[in-house]
Backbone:
């Protein structure tokens, strides 16, 4: 912000110029280790000259002494305190830069701040855009020391800063990139994840009709080196291919839905009501644990079954089943044999129909004997059990939609007693 008390400020800078060398010789408490900071290089102001972002600019071997070059560095072997500016993984800046003319500049000063934004310097870890406030610690004499970083950014591909900050009439415009100077960072920019290989698991339509499960593959270039993982997702489903416009389902509505942290599963079971013999379209995007979102996937589709799956069931004609005695099993209506359709099948209109004519497969205990007119593929087999006690019987029915099974436990009694007539 501009300040008209420029003459006192110039006098103040003169004092700093006189004491700067002595200040540099000590180890001020505010300095932070340059070797642990990820910003290096120089910024430039026409008013105050070069600003060093890291002690390694003049102390490349980190022995605590200046190499004497470039010319803006202290003389050879002059003691240099470790200092530097750092960008944390969340984009927040911290630490200190040094100006021979105005001293230390702090990049995470406490507020209150002179104007919007109400925070110290930070960077958007996806776009590289920088905003917020830094402050020269030697403020006073009519100068507040505030420096606004606005219009400044970092190139994610090479770490180079570009743009300007404004530091009032004392500093003026502070540039971070020029012909003979450059501010750089080794900050790791979070790579955006990718979603691919969309697939649909139709699920067990025998137990839960029309509950497809949507799957995708989440991948992130930062998974190996930085441990990134899926932390949120957004699935949209519609009955036409223009999924983006008024979808039937959006997992992030009502907000935040699955767009909030903690949604690590790469699958989703929709809660909407689907129709049989219908095509649906869907897409997905996902975010990693550093809030970087993938692009939307390509739109995929799936078709529901033409009608409901079979509902197999069976009963026996006899209430009591005995070993070595034939018993009639019934699944479909058969004149003179079975009185009703115990199993149910469905048509495309959703109505129930007989399962007669579909594919049947019975499973009986080992040793069970079929009558001469029936088999394991009969709709209504007639069998004789070779053992008594609890027995397990299963039936599967397959139609043009799918296959479903039913299993029941029945009890087989011991053989009936043998009768022999004797003369009185």
Residues:
């Amino acid at each position: 912000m501009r300040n008209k008390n420029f003459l006192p400020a110039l006098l103040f800078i003169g004092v700093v110029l006189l004491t700067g060398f002595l200040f540099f010789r000590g180890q001020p408490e505010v300095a932070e280790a340059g070797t642990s900071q990820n910003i290096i290089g120089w910024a430039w102001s026409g008013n105050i000259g070069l600003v060093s972002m890291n002690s390694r600019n003049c102390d490349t071997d980190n022995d605590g002494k200046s190499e004497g070059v470039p010319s803006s560095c202290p003389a050879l072997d002059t003691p240099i305190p470790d200092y530097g500016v750092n960008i944390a993984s969340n984009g927040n800046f911290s630490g200190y830069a040094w100006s021979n003319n105005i001293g230390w500049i702090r990049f995470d000063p406490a507020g209150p701040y002179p104007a919007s934004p109400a925070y110290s310097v930070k960077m958007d870890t996806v776009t590289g855009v920088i905003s917020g406030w830094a402050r020269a610690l030697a403020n006073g004499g009519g100068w507040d020391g505030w420096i606004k970083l606005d219009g400044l950014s970092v190139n994610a591909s090479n770490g180079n800063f570009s743009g300007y900050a404004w530091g009032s009439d004392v500093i003026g415009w502070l540039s971070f990139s020029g012909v003979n100077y450059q501010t750089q960072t080794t900050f790791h920019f979070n790579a955006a994840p990718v979603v691919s290989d969309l697939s649909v698991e139709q699920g067990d339509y025998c137990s839960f009709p029309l509950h497809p499960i949507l799957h995708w593959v989440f991948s992130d270039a930062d998974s190996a080196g930085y441990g990134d993982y899926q932390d949120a997702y957004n699935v949209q489903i519609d009955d036409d291919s223009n999924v983006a416009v008024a979808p039937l389902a959006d997992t992030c509505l009502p907000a935040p839905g699955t767009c909030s942290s903690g949604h690590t599963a790469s699958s989703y079971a929709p809660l909407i009501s689907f129709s049989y013999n219908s095509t649906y379209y869907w897409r997905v995007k996902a975010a990693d644990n550093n809030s970087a979102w993938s692009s939307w996937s390509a739109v995929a589709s799936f078709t529901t079954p033409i009608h409901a799956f079979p509902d197999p069931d069976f009963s026996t004609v006899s209430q009591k089943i005995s070993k070595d005695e034939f018993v009639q099993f019934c699944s479909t209506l058969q004149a003179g044999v079975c009185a009703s359709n115990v199993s149910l099948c469905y048509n495309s209109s959703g109505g129930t129909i007989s399962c007669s004519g579909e594919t049947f497969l019975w499973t009986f205990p080992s040793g069970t004997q079929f009558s001469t007119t029936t088999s394991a593929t009969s709709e209504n087999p007639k069998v004789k059990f070779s053992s008594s006690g609890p027995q397990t019987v299963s039936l599967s029915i397959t139609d043009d939609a799918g296959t479903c099974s039913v299993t029941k436990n029945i009890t087989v009694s011991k053989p009936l007693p043998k009768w022999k007539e004797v003369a009185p």
In short: The chain is about 5% helix and 35% strand. Confidence is low (pLDDT under 50) at residues 1-33. Residues 85 and 95 are 4 Å apart (CA to CA). The chain has three domains: 6-185, 194-303, 315-413.
